[in-house]
Design brief:
Layout (H helix, E strand, L loop, with lengths): L8 H14 L7 E3 L1 H4 L9 H15 L8 E3 L5 H10 L4 H5 L2 H9 L7 H4 L1 H10 L5 E4 L4 H17 L8 E4 L27 H9 L20 H9 L4 H10 L4 H27 L2 H30 L3
Parallel strand pairs: 1-2, 3-4
Helix pairs in contact: 3-13, 4-8, 4-14, 8-9, 10-13, 11-13
Length: about 325
């Protein structure tokens, strides 16, 4: 995950809950993609602080660094060396066909892209293969990245000798939680509920959430399936969704009450997370030690892999 600072509900629902559930089943590695962050924004003044804020949210959500190392990409230099080697095994034409890159260029309205941005799937391949990753939890839209990684692993193993597995994408149904304005949830758009927001802030933000434009007054019948507040109820208030739907469709439930009930359930749901977050915010040395420990452990694995790479290539 790129270190953008404090995380929001979209990150929790779309990734973190899944990561936590996988901890007991797999040996996981959780990478802070600080080099990847530079592909679209070279500014680094807040990168370290943003990384710490993100790690605090990971820990608060339930990531256990004893089971799953947490580390910064930039602190494991072997990532960049393997990236350089891999960059010799793929053509620019192949990278230009990457549909995810095309989407990013479109969404960010970029007129030109950096060399590093074009090649970010190659760095991503190094991130995965340096730990000999076998499974990568992704949504279906990210499968093209995994295919590039598989191609690079195959090319290396054929060109030199077998070192890397060909990882599979562990396709996961990542829930998409829209922002308060119905667009993709994003801090930059000001439509996000942060995991660190207090109860009052969450309630205030929920009051601004867009609803069915045809439901203007309380007694107007609503259409819950097109209302983003109802989508929030589905996630955070499943026990009352039948009642909420009936009240909305009949007009008995007004939007203000619906939003307040939803805000209350969101607050109940993330209250334990918020409490854990407060602990880590006031124990930053503990957080940093977890990070340094994860980096030591990850570095040992990465160094062993690079030793095998050097031997395979005759560079040892």
């Amino acid at each position: 995950m790129r270190p953008t600072g404090k995380l929001h509900l979209g990150h929790l629902v779309g990734a973190l809950e899944n990561w936590v559930s996988l901890q007991g089943e797999y040996q996981n590695y959780h990478l802070i993609a600080d080099y990847h962050a530079l592909t679209t924004d070279p500014e680094t003044s807040q990168l370290y602080q943003n990384s710490l804020e993100m790690v605090i949210d990971w820990l608060a959500a339930g990531i256990d660094p004893k089971q799953s190392p947490i580390f910064r990409q930039s602190q494991i230099k072997e990532h960049t060396e393997l990236h350089l080697i891999f960059s010799m095994l793929i053509t620019t034409a192949r990278l230009e066909r990457n549909p995810s890159l095309k989407e990013q260029v479109r969404d960010l309205e970029l007129e030109t892209i950096a060399y590093g941005h074009l090649g970010y799937p190659v760095l991503q391949a190094a991130d995965i293969l340096i730990y000999k990753g076998e499974l990568v939890p992704v949504g279906e839209d990210q499968l093209p990245h995994i295919e590039i990684t598989r191609e690079i692993a195959r090319k290396f193993n054929t060109q030199y000798r077998p070192v890397f597995p060909e990882p599979e994408g562990k396709v996961t149904k990542f829930a998409r939680l829209p922002g308060l304005d119905g667009k993709k949830m994003s801090k930059s758009l000001g439509n996000a509920i942060l995991l660190s927001d207090d109860a009052e802030t969450i309630t205030k933000k929920m009051r601004t959430a867009v609803t069915d434009p045809q439901k203007i007054r309380k007694n107007d019948p609503g259409r819950p399936d097109i209302c983003l507040v109802f989508a929030y109820h589905n996630k955070f208030n499943p026990q009352e969704v039948v009642e909420i739907r009936q009240g909305c469709e009949s007009g008995a439930l007004g939007c203000v009450e619906c939003k307040l009930r939803c805000a209350a359930r969101i607050n109940e749901s993330i209250a334990p997370l918020r409490e854990r977050r407060r602990h880590y915010e006031t124990h930053l040395d503990e957080v940093k030690e977890m990070l340094y420990d994860g980096e030591r452990r990850a570095r040992a694995v990465a160094q062993q892999t690079m030793s095998e790479v050097h031997t395979a290539m005759g560079l040892g």
